[in-house]
Write a structure and sequence with these properties.
Layout (H helix, E strand, L loop, with lengths): L3 H8 L3 H9 L6 H14 L5 H8 L4 E5 L8 H17 L3 E5 L4 H9 L5 E4 L8 H6 L5 E4 L9 E5 L1 H14 L4 E5 L3 H5 L3 H17 L2 E5 L5 H14 L5 E4 L5 H10 L9 E6 L1 H5 L6 E4 L2 H16 L7 E4 L3 E2 L12
Parallel strand pairs: 1-2, 1-3, 3-4, 4-5, 5-11, 6-7, 6-8, 8-9, 9-10
Antiparallel strand pairs: 10-12
Helix pairs in contact: 1-2, 1-3, 5-14, 8-10, 11-12
GO molecular function: DNA-binding transcription factor activity; transcription cis-regulatory region binding
InterPro entries: Cro/C1-type_HTH, HTH_LacI, LacI/GalR-like_sensor, Lambda_DNA-bd_dom_sf, Peripla_BP_I
Keywords: DNA-binding, Transcription, Transcription regulation
Length: about 325
């Protein structure tokens, strides 16, 4: 691996001169600077993050904490990651991906000089990581909304509004008995913010509209989908509209409904809360509320870079839900 000493020898200068060229902290003559830059290019030298930190107090690295917990949908998580990574490159920043959720590891990252800023995902209502990053010197943006952000900026889909929009759509199309096939039980036990907010909006809208709503947690497996559908049809047989907020279970929910003789788009109206590509990949194009995961990741980077520049106060941005009607919608019994 090429070192700063190799560059200095190739350019015929001291290592401190190379360091000054890299950091810009001291004026170097144009011929000497050009000689150093030619040596850097020829040798392919890249200063590591620690060296850059010593030279400029910046690492040009953003930490992204995306814990791969039980119950999370990894393909959807990776859409958020893609948004963060691609937008970070626009700012000439790299991304350090942290897939564990231990507070100790987070403390090690924030207490050193490894990263300039953090983006943190899969936020719980009462998240033990929030006080750690709130006390850190690096700015942090949360993808999610805890009960108390402690002065941190947050961005996410407005899941509470998404729940209201989904119920409103079903009521408008004549459904009076609706259901949610939702997140896995372990996600609900962690009080993950997005799941709780969607259920809160759904229940509030159903209550206000005077319609019956049934909620079934659903493991993100074929067996979990079978159990959720069978339980729903047994305990709430009058249900004619289902909201599915579980990307991994969605195709298996549709398959089980078909096995039970229920035709989606005719007998049953189904609304999915998921990224558009997931909605379009099903056996029938799904009426859906889009989860713009990649866009949210990009917004998170914009926000954290603004905080890093010192010109952005803390804020919360909740993206308005957008429902697109497709073939999985069906008129309900009360449709005029």
């Amino acid at each position: 691996m090429t070192t700063i000493d190799d560059v200095a020898k190739a350019a015929g200068v001291s290592t401190s001169t190379v360091s000054y060229v890299l950091s810009g902290k001291r004026t170097i003559s144009a011929p000497t600077r050009a000689r150093v830059e030619r040596a850097i290019e020829k040798l392919g030298y890249r200063p590591h993050a620690g060296a850059r930190a010593l030279a400029s107090a910046r690492t040009n690295v953003i930490a992204l904490m995306a814990p791969l917990r039980v119950g999370v949908n990894v393909p959807v998580i990776m859409q958020f990651v893609a948004g963060v990574v691609t937008r970070a490159r626009d700012f000439e920043h790299d991304v350090l991906l942290l897939t564990q959720d231990d507070v100790g590891g987070l403390d090690r990252v924030t207490s050193g000089s490894m990263v300039d800023a953090l983006v943190m995902m899969d936020i719980e209502a009462d998240d033990p990581r929030v006080p750690v990053v709130a006390a850190a010197r690096q700015p942090t943006v949360l993808i999610g909304l805890p009960q108390d952000p402690e002065g941190l900026s947050c961005v996410d889909l407005d899941f509470e509004a998404a729940g209201r929009v989904a119920v409103r759509h079903l009521v408008r199309t004549g459904h009076t008995d609706v259901a949610l096939i939702g997140s896995p039980p372990e996600v609900l036990r962690r009080h993950t913010s997005y799941a709780e907010r969607l259920m809160r909006g759904l229940r509030d809208q159903a209550r206000g509209a005077g319609v019956t709503v049934t909620v079934e947690a659903c493991d993100a497996t074929p067996a979990g989908a079978v159990q959720a559908v069978d339980t729903l049809l047994a305990t709430a047989p009058d249900t004619t509209g289902i909201i599915v907020h579980n990307e991994a279970a969605l195709p298996h929910v549709l398959a089980r409904l078909a096995e039970r003789g229920v035709t989606v788009g005719t007998d049953m109206s189904v609304v999915a809360v998921c990224p558009t590509d997931v909605a379009l990949a099903q056996r029938i194009p799904m009426t859906s509320i889009d989860l713009p995961a990649e866009d949210i990741g990009k917004v998170a980077v914009d926000m954290v870079m603004a905080r890093l520049g010192g010109d952005q106060p803390s804020e919360t941005r909740l993206l308005a839900p957008v429902l697109t009607e497709r073939e999985s919608s069906a008129p309900g019994p009360a449709a005029s």
